[in-house]
Amino acid sequence: MSDPIADAAYASPAIEDARRTGAPGLVELYEEIADCPACGLARTRTQTVPGSGPAPAEVMCIGEAPGAREDEQGLPFVGAAGRFLDELLGDIGMSRETVHIANVVKCRPPGNRDPQPEEIAACQPFLDRQIALVDPLLIVTLGRFSMARWFSGTTISRIHGQPKRFGNRLVVPMFHPAAALRRGDLRTVIHADFARIPALIEEARAIRAEAPSDATDPALAATAVPPPSEQRALL
Ligand code: SF4
């Protein structure tokens, strides 16, 4: 008799993507996520959306949560915001095939509501392991929830586009592409922030050359989920 969980995991587009890229350890992580019951979002998801793209990768983009299209297709950033992300990457000579893309939570919040602190906390070990496998030189946080892992007590309006070094990598906060689609004035801002990525990659390569390994990566240590009041104030 077939095992529905195993069948679902086998059919997952994200797992197929991880197999195709040959990313060591990623298939196992995605299979584990596919079976995860750790928060309430497990009851309402169609399928998990763990991520896409190679591991290791120089650049990792981390968004907030899957939306309706992602929940349907099992891959991150496949709706309108995803097409805009493709455009932003294309403008700097990059593509999603070379970038690892993930979200803070791996299951769609019903009605596209914000992910709750307890859901972010429950999913955090998966994202930590994903970052460890991808080992990016540069993390681009998209939106306030992923930004909050590294930058607290500030707003994205204040610090977007400004990189900060954590261990042997750079983290740069940027607006979520969906926010730029909703607010035309942010389109120019996000284009300008993305235009800085090639120079930031060069800077991050130099950091990594000088510090090839960092066993006590403070980026992963600095993952405390801020209290709900602080999260609401981040934009
Ligand atoms: S959001 Fe994360 S912790 Fe919650 S059920 Fe999905 S995979 Fe598990």
Task: Please state the average pLDDT score.
Answer: 88
User: How much of the polypeptide forms β-strand, as a percent range?
Assistant: 5-15%
* Head-to-tail CA distance between termini: 50 Å
Name the assembly state: single chain
Bound molecules: iron/sulfur cluster
- Biggest sheet overview: 5 strands, mixed
Total DSSP helices: 13
Describe this structure in words.
The chain is of the alpha/beta class and 235 residues long. The chain has a single domain, classed as Uracil-DNA Glycosylase, subunit E (3-Layer(aba) Sandwich). It is built from 13 helices and five strands. A five-stranded mixed beta sheet has the order 2-1-3-5-4, sandwiched between helices. Helix 2 runs antiparallel to helix 3. The longest helix is centred in the middle third of the chain and has 18 residues. It is globular. The N terminus and C terminus are likely disordered. The structure holds iron/sulfur cluster. Iron/sulfur cluster (SF4) binds next to helix 6.
